[in-house]
Amino acid sequence: MSEIDLDSIHGKLRVEGLRSHRAPFIVGKIRRVLWPFIRSYHLITLAWVRDVVLNLRAEILSACRDVVSDLRAEFLSITSANHEQIINEARTTSKRLRALNAEVLAIGRENAEIRAVLETKDAEIRAALETKDAEIRAALEAKDAEKRAVLEARDAEIRAVLEGQKSQLNELVNRFDNTPQAGEFKDSRVDSLLISLQQADFRLTQMEGVTAGQGQGWSADLVHEGQFGVAFPIGNAVCCRSAFGPIIMKQGDLITRELIKHGGWDTHLLIWLKAGAKRGSVAVDAGAHFGTLSCAMAVHFSTVHAFEPNLANYVYLCANAALRPVGRIIPHNVGLYSEQTEISLAQPEQQEVTLEAAMSLEQAFREVENTGGLVFSPQGTGVNTIKAVTLDSLNLQDVGFIKVDCQGSDGPVIAGAMETIRRCRPIVVFEWEKHLSCHQSITLEAVQAMLESVGYRVQVALRHNEKQADYVAIPQD
Q: Which of the 8 DSSP states describes residue 16?
């Protein structure tokens, strides 16, 4: 049905017929003549139009009510179905939540039970461990007391032997000092007694090493002659058992065999080493080799400066330093000399061991039997060139002991340490090898004169043979 604009029709019927501006004269006349006749028809027409419009409006309203009613019914139907579905889903979800909650509660109860069981087990284990720990501690204390008693008994025995040997030595010296044959006889007897005294002192030092080793976590134990063969290989190296803890050595080396057999090297120096420990807390090991004596020093000194120019030896020295408390042994891959210079592997004719002219350091280290016998010199071959400094340039403090074993360079090393010796007053032990030291500019007499000039007395510690002897310089204050 098309829309009818009643207001427009009514306006046209009323206004258009009445406006006078279109044909004022004609309209006015016609209006006066015809209006009385058509007025009733005009009003009837208006009423009809009004009725038509009202009926049309009623139809439209009725149609709208029907559409709205249908839409509402459909909406209510859809909403009711969705509402039912939502309620059902909510009920299902609620049931699931209640089931999960029950499961969680059950798991919580199980966890509480497990926790209670674990706490009970933990208490039982703790009690068992404490009981076992008490038993072990008691056993260890008993074992320690037993070992201590054995050590004290052996210590007393060895000290008695030591005192007896000292008495024999004093008696011998007093008896033969003024006889014409005293020189030759006394040399042999004195050396024999010195060796006996040094062996006894080594046993005492070994006991001290055992005690120190136990405090530092070593598997130290008192060992007897011939029992030092307890060693195990590590590639080309071997870990040896000693009175001063484990020591890493090169397999087959001369000093390694001596260490495995007797448990030490240069043990005659231990008596002087311990005397030096009373004079200062720092020790110097010049020509440390693998660190055999450095490890003995580490038992008595808080710091040991170990100098080794041979790089191959230095690797073993570092390994042995790593087995001690941190900072106890400080390795230095430098040489010591009378001045700052560079040294390298000496010429074959200046060596104590047999070397070929073009032999590298690695080949020499691999083939020679005594790696500690390799000589280094400022006039060397250029093989393994390394810096050398004076000991005085390091300005070390509280030095109580200096050991020098530098294969002929002992004189220059001592010359470069005289200020340290004068200032710290340490015990100084050094080796002198005539066939090696002849290549240096400093003689034994010059070394003795230097040391005596600062208040030291120099004497033989042990004479190995006609060409080689160890000396000790003792401060006279």
A: I
State the chain's mean pLDDT as an integer.
78
Q: Which burial class, exposed, middle or buried, applies to 133 when counting CB atoms under 10 A from its CB (0-12, 13-18, 19+)?
A: exposed
- Which residues neighbour 470 within 8 Å (Cβ) at sequence distance 6 or greater? 266, 268, 269, 429, 430, 431, 432, 460, 461, 462, 463, 464
Q: In this structure, is the dihedral angle defined by the CA atoms of residues 89, 90, 95 and 101, taken in order, positive or negative?
A: positive
Query: pTM of the prediction?
Result: 0.56
- The domain locations on the chain are 254-475
Within 8 A by CB and 6+ apart from 438, the residues are 408
- Alpha carbon 288 to its chain centroid, in Å, reads 26
Q: How far is CA 338 from CA 192, 232, 304, 341, 447, in A?
A: 35, 40, 21, 9, 12
* CATH top class, domain 254-475: alpha beta
CA–CA distance, 147 with 151 (Å, rounded to integer): 6
* pLDDT(264) > 80: no
Predicted confidence (pLDDT) at residue 88 exceeds the cutoff of 50: yes
Q: What is the CA radius of gyration of the chain?
A: 57
pLDDT at 212: 44
Distance CA 17, CA 47 (A): 18
- The residue with tokens 């109860």 is 109
User: CB–CB of 218/328 below 8 Å?
Assistant: no
C-beta of residue 286 within 8 angstroms of C-beta of residue 336: yes
Position 361 pLDDT exceeds 90: no
Q: How many residues does this entry show for the chain?
A: 477
What would the pLDDT profile of 446-471 be if each residue is shown by its tens digit? 999 999 999 999 999 888 888 888 99
d(CA 166, CA 183): 19
Transcribe 446-461 into DSSP letters: HHHHHHHHTTEEEEEE
The residue whose two tokens read 């709208």 is 64
Pick the more confident residue, 236 or 317: 317
Lowest mean per-residue pLDDT among 184-188, 298-302, 418-422: 184-188
Could you give the maximum distance between any two Cα atoms of the chain, in Å? 195
Nearest to 158 by CA among 203, 101, 220: 203
CA dihedral 350, 332, 372, 449 (to 10 degrees): 60
| CA within 13 Å, CB half, 222 | 17
Under a CB-based contact definition with an 8 Å cutoff, are residues 316 and 237 in contact? yes
Confidence at residue 211, expressed as pLDDT on a 0 to 100 scale: 47
